[in-house]
């Protein structure tokens, strides 16, 4: 698994960027993927009718971070498709 992420940070005594760490990061993304696939709202606090885009923003940043670790040019890959921050800003303005 780690070979897919050649630019991941070097492990330290405090934080180990090992298979378990990377797997846990991917599991977080799978959780939001499942919520979207089941048409669950992702712009509210869990169980509350309070809008909050932090959950989406954090997962989006994680995706971008993993792209960097994989040496993927996210700007080129997402060109014309990347509206996450704009949509989150619009939701926050409501």
User: What is the count of DSSP helices, taking H or I runs of 4+ residues?
Assistant: 4
Shape: globular
First and last CA, distance:
41 Å
pLDDT < 50 runs, ≥5 residues:
none
Specify Rg, calculated over alpha carbons: 15 Å
What does the main sheet amount to? none
* Average pLDDT metric: 93
Q: Which structural class fits the helix and strand makeup?
A: mainly alpha
Walk me through the structure:
By secondary structure, this protein is an all-alpha fold. The protein has one domain. Helix content is 52%, strand content 0%. It has four helices and no strands. The protein has helices at 19-37, 54-69, 74-77, 84-93. Helix 1 packs across helix 2 (54-69). The longest helix is centred in the first third of the chain and has 19 residues, at 19-37. The chain is globular. The N and C termini lie far apart (41 Å).
What is this entry, summarized?
The chain contains four helices and no strands. It is mostly helical and 94 residues long. It is globular and about 40 Å long.
What is the strand and helix layout of this fold?
Layout: H1 19-37, H2 54-69, H3 74-77, H4 84-93
Helix pairs in contact: 1-2
């Amino acid at each position: 698994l780690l070979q897919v992420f050649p630019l991941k940070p070097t492990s330290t005594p405090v934080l180990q960027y090992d298979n378990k760490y990377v797997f846990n990061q991917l599991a977080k993304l799978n959780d939001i993927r499942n919520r979207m696939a089941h048409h669950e709202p992702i712009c509210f606090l869990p169980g509350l009718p309070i809008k909050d885009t932090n959950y989406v923003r954090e997962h989006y940043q994680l995706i971008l971070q993993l792209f960097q670790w994989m040496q993927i040019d996210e700007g080129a890959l997402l060109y014309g498709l990347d509206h996450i921050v704009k949509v989150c800003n619009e939701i926050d303005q409501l």
